[in-house]
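Case study B.
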Amino acid sequence: MPKRTDIKKILIIGAGPIVIGQACEFDYSGTQACKALREEGYEVILVNSNPATIMTDPEMADKTYIEPVNADILEKIIAKERPDAVLPTIGGQTGLNTAIEAAKKGVFEKYNVELIGASVEAIEKAEDRENFREAMNKIGLRVPESGFAHSMEEARQIAQKIGFPVIIRPSYTLGGTGGGVAYNPEELEVVAKSGLDASMIRQIMIEESVLGWKEYELEVVRDKNDNVVIICSIENIDPMGVHTGDSITVAPAQTLSDKEYQILRDAAIAIIREIGVDTGGSNVQFAINPLNGDMIVVEMNPRVSRSSALASKATGYPIAKIAAKLAVGYTMDELKNDITGETMAAFEPSIDYVVLKIPRWTFEKFPETKDVLTTTMKSVGETMAIGRTFKESFQKALRSLETGRAGLGSDGKDIEIPETEELMAKLVTPNSQRLFYIRYAFKKGMTIDEIYKATSIDPWFLNQIKQIVDFEEILQKAGSDFDKDLVYEAKKMGFSDIQLSNLLGKKLEEIENFRKTHNIFPVYKLVDTCAGEFRASTPYFYSTYEQIDESRINNCKKVMILGGGPNRIGQGIEFDYCCVHASFALKEEGVESIMVNSNPETVSTDYDTSDKLYFEPLTKEDVLHIVNTEKPDGVIVQFGGQTPLNLALALEKAGVKIIGTSPSSINKAEDREEFQAMLNKLSLRQPESGIAFSEIEAIKVAEELGYPVLVRPSYVLGGRAMRIVYDREELKEFSKYGFAVSEGHPVLIDKFLQGAVEIDVDALSDGNKTIIAGIMQHIEEAGVHSGDSACVLPPYSLSDKIIEEIKVATRAMAKELDVIGLMNVQYAVKNNELYVIEVNPRASRTVPFVSKATGVPLAKMATKIMLGKTIDGLCLEDCHELSHFAVKEVVLPFNKFPEVDLILGPEMKSTGEVMGIDKDLGNAMAKSIYAAGQKLPESGTVFISVRDEDKDKAAVIAKDFIELGFEIIATRGTSAFFEEQGIKNKMVRKVSVGRPHVIDEIKNNSISLIFNTPSGNSRTEKDGYLIRRAALGFGIPYTTTIEGAAAYCLAVKALKKSEIKVKPLQEYY
Amino acid sequence: MKAVLALEDGTIFPCKSFTGSGESGGELVFNTSMTGYQEVLTDPSYNGQMVVMTYPLIGNYGVNEEDVESDKIQVSSFIVREYQDYPSNYRSKKSLADYLQSQNIMGIHDLDTRGLTLHLRENGSMRAFISTSEIESPEKAVEKAKNLPSMAGSDLVKNVTTKKPYFWENNKKKFIDSLDEGEKLWKSKDKYRICAFDFGVKFNILRLLEAQGFEVLAVPAFTGFDEIKKLNPDGIFLSNGPGDPEPVTYAVETIKNLIGFKPIFGICLGNQLLGLAMGGKTYKLKFGHRGANQAVKREDGRVEVTSQNHGFAVDLESLDKDKLEITHINVNDNTLEGFRHKEIPLFCVQHHPEASPGPHDASGLFSDFKKMIDDFKKKEQ
Ligand SMILES: Nc1ncnc2c1ncn2[C@@H]1O[C@H](COP(=O)(O)OP(=O)(O)O)[C@@H](O)[C@H]1O
Ligand SMILES: Nc1ncnc2c1ncn2[C@@H]1O[C@H](COP(=O)(O)OP(=O)(O)O)[C@@H](O)[C@H]1O
Ligand SMILES: [Mg+2]
Ligand SMILES: [Mg+2]
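Model:
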């Protein structure tokens, strides 16, 4: 039966900001859904607060609401748009939760809207533990035994009944605080107690543990005729106990016989039917006992998910797109399989390669957090690799991860093999580096069986790793005696040239030349959904070392785009957005687009984004192979963030034509001395600075500059480790590790501009003419990383003179750097003087935000300029006067890292962003705060506790709040200060003073807003820390900067004046 | 050990043997199931064929005692991208290499199996030859491939059908000497009695027939109508089997007589033989359907994912639509996947509802068979 004609207008709920556990995979699914539904002629209304997404591009939907994603706002949009249907299964957990809440409020009934994809009943059946258990029991499947305890007595009873070990999860805590595993009654006493204490409602769930069982996932799709297919099976290499999002996973499942696989398949089908997901995709997780095949259902997600994105990329089957079409009434046998173009979507993909996913963590950003993996997800991104053997894919995935490793080992980055005790600890407790420790364990002579006992990782996987380690030894033994066959064999096992050069004791160039002489190059194979059974029409490639090449080289003009690799803090969806736009621009210009990327979550790696897709690691070697195969007319490196920039010089040296700003210009902006020289030449100011190679030198430089200073090691792997240092004591403290991590490179010391306003500028230049695309004024002062501060476009309190100065300076630098394409500058203004903090001659994190705020697709325009168009030719001009404000607010992952203080600093920590847009600044701010997950109160009590420097400003804010009808409570110092100023307030105790204290008040629900700024001194101030954690833990709106507090005040004022109004992006420009 | 795979069209794939030295030939086909290699190896429909698995890693979960579809390995040789010599699975009893070696079947790996698959897709299934001795002179191996008998036109059923009849009881064969005793051979009173023609029947079909509560007697392919008549069964089952249905004329003759005698259910080759018996035609597919992921559309519009293994098919156009109803169609290439007689109790499918390996979506056909017998009985009364 064809699509439904009784519905015309469909609202899609997006996933909102990127957070840990919900990343850009939902932009991928959302974009597919938008495209799929519009293709069918439906009017598509979209709500998503995340401006960095492709799905919120104004061309993707008929009406795009960049508004907070929650039931309140959803109701407003529905009231205004009156859609016929809402599709809730595309926007992750946020989409589901929002839909459920709206349903409970009666919104859908009131406006006569139908939920398509999954009904409220189905969602609740899957999400509610008890309902789910019942449903599973009904179809003869088992879930882990569990029970809720409110006291130790109950805990003991339940644990007794279930049997040890048990998993303890406190209800209503974030990030798994207070949970754990108890292996015996003694441990239960400890873990259950801490769990009860951590829970806001003194409740814990005690669950049967199946730690160490094997974990599997199946991606299931169902249509309205009750046809069900399995798209992909995924096996977690890390067994139960490590969240699937943190597990290294492989597709398809490797260690199941057909009989066992079919049991899972039957179960998954029975589950989707019983839960009653009408149409679309679901993800089902299973645990299997490796000793006897016993099976437990872990959970089912009645929506597209991170794993379904992975499954789509792994198989070529576009789950979200198909799910969207099934939601409007198609059946799978009516839909084409795009990849083959000749077969139908009703089938189960068969793959003829091995896919590996490795998560990317950022423990280095949160030094207070232990590198330990648990049932709570902590990774911020992932990479995927495709190869014809496990070993090949595994080593490709390790280099795709971009953590500096060129494979499993022997890449010059190995540490000394640890002592047995340390080694065992690293094997037994899952952590981000465990794979490398498995290698060390083999090197040390441990057996597969011993390592299996320590890790519970299936021996099959351990054997694969062992084969790689063994082959390292073979290579090492061969030494300079190596021959063509040996190198080819190594290549088939995924060894990179860097590893070979280390193992064979040759220079990298020698290995490269040897390969050339002996014609050892990879071939490219197609991802075709069907293991070669049908011809594939979409060119989606991966490399391998085999006989037959399937690449399809066209003799037309073509440009290659290098993507950003796995997401990490500081390099996320914004860069993928730019890459995708580059591809769109190339299409518009009739140039073939070739995308190279290794991130399965993204739109850039969708098979129909570019003319060709190479799913490959972004390393010099892998990229050069593609370049040599495709021979593109140019390569774009300025969109994928730091990843392609790091390759730019090497590629250019290898003769690759980089289009846009030249690598040497890029380098000029990054090289400290060259950059300084340039600024001097242009008479631009920079904060004074110096460098130091030792603690003594550092003190000398710092004291010449005068404290506070900003210090940073000039070379640190994986994190910038910047610090603001206020006195000699602190500098000494920093020096202790600062020089160690710098490894002989100097430490950079800048005069810290205290109390300065920071400004971000995005500009576009064709080499002659430069336009200022957007000027953003940060809300937080300089010192909070630009990626972590909220900002406003256009600037709301800068003088015309400064704005003019900014424009002139930006144009001058663009000219001097010969920028062709995008450029981003960060400035600071202090005492009406303009300082340049940093220039990046490339796409910045703010490009999508500026594009959404102004309506100018910057990355697309930049691409056209790189192809030779001019600013004038494209009719581009400086950002014109806007009749609205766009506010960017950030989202931080502190809820996943319970030990970390919530303060902002020069090191970026946020994972995502939202945008609030409105004609009124206060309303735009209110929207952005709401979208970031904090609902501002319109009455109640404001708690204020600020450092001395902030007290004056705090007083003004407090007065405003009193005027707005709020009460004020404050800690002693702040309270006394307010008292002096005649501001009515109540004093409340700090935790260290005694009870009842502020946290008691928080728990009693008597505080509705918290302003707490950390004392400038970075020595831990325990009290502030506890307050901030409590604010987060109990979901009370808070901010930790005084400028933030002022913004909150403005927002509350605006809210009290008029409630939030929604308006689609298309009506702003 | 180095080896070479030579195709009759002269294409050469250097490779390695993981089962020691030897030579082997046959018709080369590919299978796209990602699991179930042991079932594939022992499926009599593959008798004499060289099977390439498109999934690159094979051997992962070893070999066990239960997952067999006949008494021995049926393929002539087994071709994989990377053989896995360290199986991991609680049911595994031995490695795949040991299993192949114990029955003198060659296994090769370390060749571009995807390249090989695409070659077969583009050029059709063809004969091929593997050798560990002709690595220096592959053209000799090509000659040997050319000299192999071709599959079309030869009766392969006679190689695999049971020599003696047997009851399938408690998941085991119980041979009997002859069918001479006729109806007295049946032991049960209350069970339906099924005569299953063994053209190379897969065990799982017999298991599922038994699971339906049938008493199952498997008979050789040559069994004539008179003998069946004497047995007076309640239903007739026509099994899967290898190769071209056309030369299996003796079976077609028998089936012609059986039509209308008792309810008939056919699978795979059984479907093709019924097609021929109903006056239809069969033909060789370019490279066949072999895998566990093919969608088949039923007449009620529902789609089932099915297990498949056939190189020949019934020509849909050749069937007499006045008498027959098409019940199943392949969603991808619209080839015939099953039909039923409008009046006479008989139905059959081209795919494998017994799965093994593969999905269980179509397993309901076994109870449909039972229902057909029920209905037939009611009418008889
Ligand atoms: N009973 C259990 N025993 C051991 N590990 C478990 C158990 N339940 C869940 N886990 C582990 O915790 C992870 C997260 O649990 P899950 O229920 O899937 O929550 P989420 O909704 O966060 O995905 C799983 O991927 C699994 O590794
Ligand atoms: N001299 C300075 N005075 C005050 N703040 C500074 C100074 N230098 C850098 N910052 C702050 O540190 C942040 C990060 O510094 P930046 O040089 O932009 O590093 P990144 O390359 O990580 O963006 C800036 O966004 C700004 O807030
Ligand atoms: Mg889960
Ligand atoms: Mg910066």
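Chain A has a mean pLDDT of 94. The remaining cases will be described in the next quarterly update.
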